[in-house]
Amino acid sequence: MNKTVSMAAAALALVTTMTACGSGSESEGAGGGAEGGGGGDTIVLGFSQVGAESGWRTANTKSIKQSAEDAGFELRFSDAQQQQENQIQAIRSFIQQGVDVIAFSPVVESGWDTVLVEARAADIPVVLTDRAVETDEDDVYETFLGSDFVEEGRKAGRWLVDEYADSDEEVRIVELQGTTGSAPANDRRDGFAEIIGEDDKFEVIASQDGDFTRSGGQEVMQAFLSSHDDIDVLYAHNDDMALGAIESIEAAGLEPGEDIKIISVDGIKDAFQAMADGKINVVVECNPLLGPQLMDLVEKVHAGEEVPERVKVEEGVFTQDQAEEELPNRKY
Ligand code: GZL
Question: Do β-strands 317-319 and 310-312 pair in parallel, antiparallel, or remain unpaired?
């Protein structure tokens, strides 16, 4: 693989990345700046991040940056502000720079084949982290490190089935979905539906995209409340939307956690505090601290070592009675 990238091209690519993404693009760690690509002693890792939409994402970014520094890698980091076109341009820029490895968390599942084929043609290995892609191409990424979102949805469903095991009454659910087309939104929806679908007393009366943000959760929950006066349960695909929804529930004069039970996913500190305050009933953990595992995979992939095609992250489920005790242990 020809990794000689002219200084001008590399500088242009880096500037292009910053201009194109209109977002945060930075180079950190050993040898930061607009030097050429990889091929030296220091592994140059190009990372395209979804954005900064949630507490989970903030913790994920911090883990990646800290782990790259600890591993002695040069990290070229791009924040796509939740726009797929920004991620595609960042990946193209990393290809032009001739980085050693590209890693990214795809904001949505589809639309990646062209740029992944370009990375393969440039002989630059790609590592998926956090979210998966749908692709018809073979060998366009080395491994996928991330949670099992379908299982997270099942865990949410199982809690609800247990919670209402002794009731035959209809249970009316509203669902705050994550970013449309994203793997966590699709899979958490499907896993939850799989479990509650076994009993027709459970009915999802409304489901809408809140984009994984607090403002999105607040706005969509407000809309749900204005068109439904019989909501029993909120299933939020992440804590930030659940926390935003709580504001709307309280503004409507209702008690979150009591009048409307709340199931959430991620496990950020603010959600544990809300659980301790009785406002969220259960949190399905989704671990953002993927940095150490990611850097280990990057090192192996760069060395040409075999890596598993799929690396799952172990996670738990936490209920209100555990919140107070667990809160001091939370790392994000
Ligand atoms: C899950 C991650 C999701 C989180 C949200 O791995 O992709 O994106 O659940 C975040 O908080 O926005």
Answer: unpaired
pTM for the model: 0.90
22: pLDDT confidence band, cut at 50, 70 and 90? very low
Q: What is the pLDDT of residues 58-99, one digit of tens each?
A: 999 999 999 999 999 999 999 999 999 999 999 999 999 999
Same domain, 176 and 84: no
Task: Give the contacts of 289 (CB within 8 A, at least 6 positions apart).
Answer: 59, 60, 63, 331, 332
CA 146 to ligand 1: nearest atom: 6
Residue 104 — φ and ψ, nearest 5°?
-160, 160
Task: Spell out the SS3 assignment of the chain.
Answer: CCCCCCHHHHHHHHHHHHHHHCCCEEEEECCCCCCCCCCCCCCEEEEEECCCCCHHHHHHHHHHHHHHHHHCCEEEEEECCCCHHHHHHHHHHHHHHCCCEEEECCCCCCCCHHHHHHHHHCCCCEEEECCCCCCCCCCCCCEEEECCHHHHHHHHHHHHHHHCCCCCCCEEEEEEECCCCCHHHHHHHHHHHHHHCCCCCEEEEEEEECCCCHHHHHHHHHHHHHHCCCCCEEEECCHHHHHHHHHHHHHCCCCECCCEEEEEEECCHHHHHHHHCCCCCEEEECCCCCHHHHHHHHHHHHCCCCCCCEEECCCCEEEHHHHHHHHHHCCC
Report whether residue 301 contacts ligand 1, using a CB cutoff of 6 Å: no
Tell me, using a 6 A CB cutoff, whether residue 25 lines ligand 1.
no
**C-alpha 49 to ligand 1 mean position (Å):** 11
Q: How many Å separate Cα 177 from the centre of its chain?
A: 13
Please tell me the number of Cα atoms within 13 Å of 85 on its side-chain side.
4
- What CATH number is attached to the domain comprising 220? 3.40.50.2300
Q: Residue 248's CB: how many other CB atoms inside 10 A?
A: 21
Instruction: For residue 56, give the ligand 1 atom closest to its CA.
Output: 11
Task: Please tell me whether residues 200 and 160 are part of one structural domain.
Answer: yes
Domain that holds residue 295: 26-146+288-314
